[in-house]
Amino acid sequence: MPSLKPKLDGATMKDTPTSFALPVVSDKAEATPAHDHAHDVVGDALDHAAAHSDASESGYGRTYWRSLEEKLGKPEYLEESRPEFPEGADLPPTGVARREFMQLLGASLALAGATACSTRPVDERMVPYTRTPPELVPGNPLHYASGMTFGGHTSGLLITAREGRPIKVEGNPQHPVNLGAAGPFEQAFLLSLYDPQRARVLRYRKEPRSLRTFGEELLGGIGRAAQENGGGRVRFLTEPNTSPVLDHLRSRIQQRLPNARFTSYTSVTQDAASEGTRTVFGQSATPVYDFSKADVILSLDADFLESRPANLAYARAFANRRDPAEGNLNRLYVAEPRFTITGGMADHRLRVKSQEVLAVAAAIASRVGGAVAGLAGAAAAKAQLNEAHTKWVDAVAADLRAAGARSAVVAGERQPAVVHALAAALNVALGNVGQTVRYVPSAIAETTSAAALRPLVDEIKSGAVDTLVITAWNPVYRAPVDLGLRDLLDPAKNPNRNKLTVIYTSLFEDETSAYADWFIPAAHELEYWSDGRSIDGTVTVVQPLIQPLFNGVSTPELLALFLGEPYRTSYQILRDFWRGRAAAGTDFETAWETWVSVGIVPDTATAALAGTPNVDAARALVDAYTPPAAGELEVNFVADYKVYDGQFANLSWLQELPDPISKMTWDNAAYLSPATAARLGLQPGDVATLSYGGRTLEVPVWIIPGTADDVVVLPLGYGRMGLHETVAKEVGFNANLVRSVNAPWFDGGAKLEKARRTHKFALTQHHWRMENRPLALDMTVAAFRAEQEKEKRKGSSLLARVRGDLEGGNLMPDFKYEDYKWAMAIDLARCTGCAACVVACQSENNIPVVGKEQVSRSREMQWLRIDRYFTGDELNNPEMVMQPVACVHCEKAPCEYVCPVNATVHSDEGLNDMVYNRCVGTRYCGNNCPYKVRRFNYLHYTADKTPTQKMLMNPDVTVRNRGVMEKCTYCVQRIERVRIKARVEKRPIFEKELQTACQQTCPTQAIVFGTLSDPNAQVTKDHNDERAYKLLHELGTKPRTAHLIRLRNPNPALVPAKPAEGQPEGGH
Amino acid sequence: MAETAAHTAAALDPLEPRPLVAPHHDDKSLNETLLDHVWAKPGKGWFMLFGLALAALGLLVLGVTVTLARGVGMWGNNQPNGWAFDIINFVWWVGIGHAGTLISAILLLFQQKWRTSINRFAEAMTLFAVCCAGLFPLLHTGRPWFAFWLFPYPSTLGAWPQFRSPLVWDVFAISTYLTVSALFWYVGLIPDLAALRDSSKGKIQRIVYGLFALGWRGSGRHWHNYKIGYLLLAGISTPLVVSVHTIVSFDFATSLIPGWHATIFPPYFVAGAVFSGFAMVITLIVPARKYLKLRDVITDRHLENMNKVILATGLIVSYGYMMEHFIAWYSGNEYEIWTFYVNRARGPYAGVYWLMIACNVITPNIFWFKKCRTSIPIMWVASILVNIGMWCERFIIIVTSLTQDFLPSSWDLYSPTWVDWSIYVGTLGLFSTLFLLFLKFVPAVAVSEVKELQLELKHAAHHGSHGTDTAAAGTLTHGAH
User: Fold this and answer.
1) B interface test, pick of A665, A806, A856, A901 with most B CB neighbours within 10 Å
2) For residues B438 and B285, what is the distance between their CA atoms, to the nearest angstrom?
3) Taking CA A288 as the corner, what is the angle to CA A283 and CA A289, rounded to the nearest 5 degrees?
4) Separation in Å, CA B377 to CA A479, B288, B312, B383
């Protein structure tokens, strides 16, 4: 019985860390498990309690509860380990957090005592600051490679930690999918780590328990029952899995419980793709595209620039082909029912209902002919091509044929297997396989659709299941309503429910946890060790950045409990697994250190399928296909751009992020085309009753031009009713309530009827048009070349206006810049509008979230916004152009001269600095800014930060108070950090070492930052690019941010006869 | 200066203007008439109005408290509309304040005798209006507790205001204006305070009025110094009439927002200010002269003259509107064209715009007709319409210019909150409260000056046509108290 922990520097090592744990890179010293006697759980706990009962260091809560526990003498009340209270909980909670905290603690004192139950029985190496590890210099950030898994795929991240607190996410440049970029979800990843609403209490029904008690239960009661007939009455419901270590754990559980079964479920399943490719390639395969080689791309309802899992790599390769400086432009055709980000990048976009996509694909395939002719014929018999689409289809097919093996056909995950089979067959027929696309065995081997849950549901209904372990995220919420999971798990509605023990783990007490018997708060992915694959099979090592803040239990540790083995931490589990896989004779430790530091395990990418594809094998699939009912409205379900399927609904950054297309925040809506809305007599903001499949749902309506007619689009992920997820709660409506297993993505026969109510939306942009002003310039290559010719003869009024000589257009004196001249360039041809930069900026610069009410008052605080304009045939078939706008750092800034107190001043490097301390908040600068990029703290938006939320703040950036103006600073804190380093090394700042947050995360590298004083810098080249222009150039503000004109590459066969293309922005 | 000719002819002559002071008065009766309302117990009406004013003042206290406690976010201002009710009301109140200085200073220098009966009244109005106006720039800052940073004070950090900013100019303009107006008003009040002291019946009143009278004895030396001082103050005030609203207009004119960025703003703002100021004087003086029984000194002729000023300045304002629209079209600048022809005339606030046109362009034209100029009910209603119109003008200038400027993506509407309204109504309450107190405790008409004028007029009547310049000089020694 150890009396005291070892001493360091003569001081007693305290239980509660005064600092936060650093990630442990190596455990050489502790490689051998120190807990051989771990079976004796109760004894352990008693030992531990005795060792830790040091009255002198305790607050009242600890001693009080320890004594009560001892008095009760119940082992389950005994706490076992170190971090007694969740990190941050020892600080006085305030405001909302305090209420939440108290709710979680519950009204009963017993519950309060139970929060002391830690889930971490084993000490990992903690590093107090008295012995600073060599890599740590207080004040300097450290970067760790890690990962984020969702939908089964793991992307590689690089996480910045400050004094042990992770504060910023970037993409891992070494990762084949991320390539240094990160999307909005990844950027908001940290917010969920610090979410004060995360679950903290492990409970059995309403009684708090410790993990150890749960482990015992698994060894005892549940365990014995489970082992009967080889686990025949045990079921696991998991997320789709690509993680090698979890896979290993699963197979070991299967060894122990051979009759137990694992089922996977996710809302955005890749099943259709797998099924479609299986027919062609003989095994389920995933296409991996190389868009850098594709001249012509056809997207069949595939939002490949934004929908997971490979979008970041795709967007990078695609964007490189939109820059005329890098060669001829590619051409993108998109057929889709709603405006997607990919559709916005299209050269030719066809508005079709989802069910018409098959007809379009079949018609194109039959015109392409060759190997695909037979399949196309069969498919065409199933779906009649709309005559209005013939011209488009002809042109696309001709273009595809002409491009031959330099084309690519992409099918979206919302489309049925037939479309995937057709796309694969088209790629085969065009000779793309091995050129622009390679088919690799799917990283996710199992089925993950709702239909695959049916057998499990039936088993539970018939009482054939005793134990159901759910590690999948919130199936009660996200499964289609007709699966009946909610009723199934409700004791009042399912007579066999009382035979069943539901064990559920999640970050939050959510819709599913309400029906769980055992609820185990999950550890965040940045709190434990794990791994996972990306789409091409590359394995990422997911490294924790911090000790569990809320005593969550990691999924590997939880699954390992079913092995009935001594407790191992996720770190040990992962290392043991990979050590076992290491080739004999190699130095595992060195390899491991490299993997962890780089973030990926090398040479784990999957090889492409070798066999010969058999296109005609897909005939059976086509013949078996039944098209959905036509008639009335076609209901379409889509994963949301901001909250996905609801997993990210509690992340306020994402809730407040304007939807890239609708610019809506804090809501979803039933999106309609203008014509359909007019036909139904609906106005934006009306509430309508949607009836479909015998169910009705009240939905507010919004109009987006470019939506296909007779289509209603319902984004998933809203209408969350989780117990403590107060951010997500009751935001929008839950589309799963009308979604069915058989038609998870689209179906005909929906009706919309106007209800009496109206709904107030909070949008960040209300005006669609540019009003003939030359703002976001967007023209065809031909039109641009013509303008350039005119410009040479000084005849282009357009180009003269956006970049001509102003001849003293501004009376302000010129500044002198002797050193750096910071500048930015944003390429509109590359920008897809995905909004990753907006979230990155929010994270980097401590930008507050203001809530729906304030957004509806137009007081959103994001420094970077993406203006979205519709051009062309605005109502029926518009084109969309995105334009990121942040402070453009005018050399002759209108904001500077009007500030009465010198709070916004010009730096000698051309930055338009904002001095928060000096600002009194007259808002004159904001008024006089023609770009309207200044953001004012109308209220004290940062007042209610809880201690855990404060941990997320970037210490290099001031947290602004009420009444202060703020705006983009060009990430001045990053400039200063590299400046320090450069000064120490007596050299200028290198271009490569300095990136703004938005630039760093941009998947398409649309944003470039640097100094104009360096003629070789990319930003200088971009400023001198033939496409460069300055927004509102004619005002004489001399912006330091240049925009590059977006060029389109239309197919001459599809260009309308009138030469008006691109003219709406002409502004004459 | 037609009326300087003479008042010898009887009122029968239709070409002769009506008298400025009812001829039957002598010094004593004037004293009684003009000081009477100070000594009389206020009537029920006064108490009712005072109660109403206090209630509105309560709204001000509430609105200000909420604003200070929670922040300007309690107002309706938002991202494109950084300014709204705050600056609208600021400009509106400052504009109203203009009549006082104009009447007191410029008309004094031009030796317009008809100013005498109304100058006290107008100056008080100025003072209170500027007080109301001054509240807004202070409250509208995000951190009002640091608003003093706009003043050039010896900061330990060595930080100075940014002198290129029109807001700093505003600080000087408004504070100078307030100081000079207060001084001018108070100096003019001294002889009357002394008169009140001397005619007071209670000890407390005597002491209080005596203190404020600063030992005025009405000696020739006093009068000599007083007249010089008053004239000097008038001289100092004169440029302020032009400067204050010119500088206020610079807040807009120096910016680059379409609808603000206009060189016509200074004269057009000054005219607008005088326009609204005179309208407010009419609005207040019409009931006041009835209930304070001042018809004999504030005659219909005064009112008619003021209506003429309203007509003249109203026409200047209309010309301003015309030029704004013309220049917007003539420039061919699409942002300007959008602002004037699409957003203002047909946009979301078109109702306010057309109300402005109706009140400011059409209404003053009724004063071409003598019947309207002299009809009390018509002028009173018209004066209120003008005040509404001028408020709408500021709303249109500020809000429509900001809601839709250069980038359509940032366009957003503005709507005031209850706090905005309560502060606005609250300043009306503050103004009314101060004004009612003024009417109760201070002679609303400059007694000494009226008596002086009376003497002067009689003098002129006896001696035929005399230049008023000599008359003015002559009265210096006639300390008629």
Assistant:
1) A901
2) 13
3) 140
4) 73, 14, 20, 10
CB contact at 8 A, B161 and A900: yes
Residues of chain A contacting residue B73, judged by C-beta atoms under 8 Å apart: 854, 859, 938-939, 962
Averaged pLDDT of chain B: 84
The verdict on a CB contact (< 8 Å) between A901 and B161 is: yes
Per-chain mean pLDDT for chain A: 83
Residues in CB range of A506: below 8 A, 6 or more apart: A199, A473, A474, A512, A513, A519, A521, A522
- The chain A residue lying nearest B258, using CA atoms, is A930
Q: Do A900 and B171 touch (CB under 8 A)?
A: yes
Q: Which of B75, B165, B409 to mutate to test the interface with A (most CBs of A within 10 A)?
A: B409
Per-residue model confidence as pLDDT tens digits over A949-1006: 888 999 999 999 999 999 999 999 999 999 999 999 999 999 999 999 999 999 999 9
The angle formed by the CA atoms of residues A764, A765 and A767, to the nearest 5 degrees, is: 160
- What pLDDT score does A885 carry? 95
What single string gives the DSSP state of each residue in A869-937? Answer: EEEEETTTEEEEEEEEE-----TT-HHHHH-TTS-EEE-TTS-EEE-GGG-----HHHHH-TT---EE-
Q: What is the pLDDT of residue A90?
A: 44
pLDDT at A103: 45
Closest chain A residue to the Cα of B142, Cα to Cα: A963
In A685-796, which residue ranges form alpha helices assigned H by DSSP?
781-792
Question: What is the rounded end-to-end Cα distance, in angstroms, of chain B?
Answer: 28
Percent of chain A exceeding pLDDT 70 equals 86
CB-CB neighbors (< 8 A) of B141 in chain A = 920-922, 963
Cβ atoms of residues B446 and B438 within 8 Å: no
Q: A72-107 pLDDT, tens per residue?
A: 444 443 334 334 444 444 444 444 444 544 444 443
Among candidates A857, A931, A1067 on the partner chain, residue whose Cβ is nearest the Cβ of B407: A931
Beta-ladder partners of A370: none
User: Which of A502-506, B14-18, B286-290 is predicted least confidently?
Assistant: B14-18
A922 min Cα distance to partner chain B (Å): 5
Name the minimum distance, in Å, from the CA of B144 to any CA of chain A.
7
Q: If you count residue pairs, one on A and one on B, with CB atoms under 8 Å apart, how many are there?
A: 164
Chain A hits for B159, CB-CB cut-off 8 Å, are: 901-902, 918
Show which of residues 1027-1056 on chain A sit within 8 Å of chain B, judged by CB atoms: 1031-1032, 1035
| A751: pLDDT strictly greater than 70 | yes
What residue type is assigned to position A646 of the chain?
Answer: G
If 0-12 CB within 10 Å is exposed, 13-18 middle and 19+ buried, where does residue B467 land?
A: exposed
The alpha carbon of residue A659 is apart from the nearest alpha carbon of chain B, in Å, by 14
B447-463 per-position pLDDT tens digit: 777 777 777 777 766 66
Cβ of A940 under 8 Å from any chain B Cβ? yes
Q: Are A900 and B165 contacting, i.e. CB atoms less than 8 angstroms apart?
A: yes
Chain A residues whose beta carbon lies within 8 Å of the beta carbon of residue B407: 775, 867, 885, 930-932, 1031-1032
Mean pLDDT, residues A880-892? 93
Give A615's DSSP letter: G
As given in the structure block, the two tokens for residue A782 are 């031909």
- Mapping DSSP to helix (H, G, I), strand (E, B) and coil, where does residue A993 land? helix
Distances (CA, A) of A974 to A140, A981, B215: 12, 11, 69
- A163 Rama class: left (phi>0) / alpha (psi -120 to 50) / beta: left
Q: Most B CBs within 10 Å: which of A761, A850, A866, A927, as the mutation test of the B interface?
A: A927
State how far the Cα of A708 lies from the Cα of A634, in Å rounded to an integer: 10
Q: Which chain B positions have a beta carbon within 8 Å of A964's beta carbon?
A: 142-143
